[in-house]
Amino acid sequence: MESKGSGRFTMSRCLRSGDTVHASVVVTLLLGVWCASALEVSVGKVPFMEAMNGSTVLLPCIYSSCIGIKNLYFNWHYNDNGTMAKLCEGVIPIEGVEPRVQEYQERIEFVGSSKHNNISILLFNVTFEDEGEYTCFARNPKEKNRNHSAVFTLFVVDELKVVDNTVTTIIVSVVGGVIGLIIVVMVTKTVVLLILKKSAEKNAGIRTDSSSATASPL
Ligand SMILES: *[C@@H]1O[C@H](CO)[C@@H](O)[C@H](O)[C@H]1NC(C)=O
Ligand SMILES: *[C@@H]1O[C@H](CO)[C@@H](O)[C@H](O)[C@H]1NC(C)=O
Ligand SMILES: *[C@@H]1O[C@H](CO)[C@@H](O)[C@H](O)[C@H]1NC(C)=O
Ligand SMILES: *[C@@H]1O[C@H](CO)[C@@H](O)[C@H](O)[C@H]1NC(C)=O
Ligand SMILES: *[C@@H]1O[C@H](CO)[C@@H](O)[C@H](O)[C@H]1NC(C)=O
């Protein structure tokens, strides 16, 4: 509630009358650019993931369209060493209506939802052969059947993380120990230097006393 109010305050402070016109022009332009690309498919900000063999992974994909969709065709395919293997395909009749999806691989399951523009799939029991590029493809007849796609890369790993952690722990302890040792050495050095300086001052004082004592009779 409070942050909203302060946000509006900053806005009104920044946008004086002339700026408001500019801002609306910019917004219109942005909308125009955004709408020109109509349909968009995305596999998320991080287009890859590491999965352990035997696990189940979500291959994410969402679409968006500002002109709306009608009979949106989509599929997922896997780049199997150059040949594209189709994993599943479906058609979303209109927004909000769930598609009938055909799955061509028994370990694939469509888990998307038209309500959330989600056309993600699950891949069960991952094997090392599943590593590679998965393409989420979509085509909206509303925009001259232009093709859109996004690629998600899957890496399959064995349980190596535990070993890595042990190595990391060892490295961290060694580095920590060395840094601790350096600190101890430096503190010791400072203390010793301080003591030496103190005793040197004392010695100097004694010497001045003795020199003045020997000098005075002369
Ligand atoms: C992963 O692969 C390794 C080596 O092939 C195998 O020993 C292990 O059982 C596999 N793990 C699972 C969960 O399938
Ligand atoms: C993939 O292709 C390369 C070269 O084209 C070949 O050497 C390799 O054996 C192929 N791998 C599989 C899994 O088919
Ligand atoms: C995944 O593996 C488990 C255990 O091996 C098996 O019960 C299950 O049916 C498999 N799931 C699929 C979709 O293959
Ligand atoms: C898509 O749906 C799946 C399954 O319900 C869910 O796990 C995933 O988070 C959804 N993705 C997005 C971007 O909403
Ligand atoms: C879209 O892809 C299909 C193959 O899936 C191809 O036949 C068609 O020519 C492509 N359309 C455009 C406009 O690139």
UniProtKB/TrEMBL annotation:
Gene3D superfamilies: Immunoglobulins
UniProt keywords, alphabetically: Disulfide bond, Glycoprotein, Immunoglobulin domain, Membrane, Signal, Transmembrane, Transmembrane helix
Mode of membrane association: Single-pass type I membrane protein
Cellular localisation: Membrane
Record-linked Pfam families: V-set
Predominant subcellular localization, coarse grouping: membrane
GO MF annotations, alphabetized: sodium channel regulator activity; transmembrane transporter binding
GO cellular component, one term: voltage-gated sodium channel complex
Alphabetized InterPro entries for the sequence: Ig-like_dom, Ig-like_dom_sf, Ig-like_fold, Ig_sub, Ig_V-set, Myelin_P0-rel
Span of domain Ig-like: 54-153
Positions of transmembrane segments: 21-39, 170-196
GO BP terms: cardiac muscle cell action potential involved in contraction; regulation of ventricular cardiac muscle cell membrane repolarization
Protein name stated in the entry: Ig-like domain-containing protein
Classification lineage: Eukaryota, Metazoa, Chordata, Craniata, Vertebrata
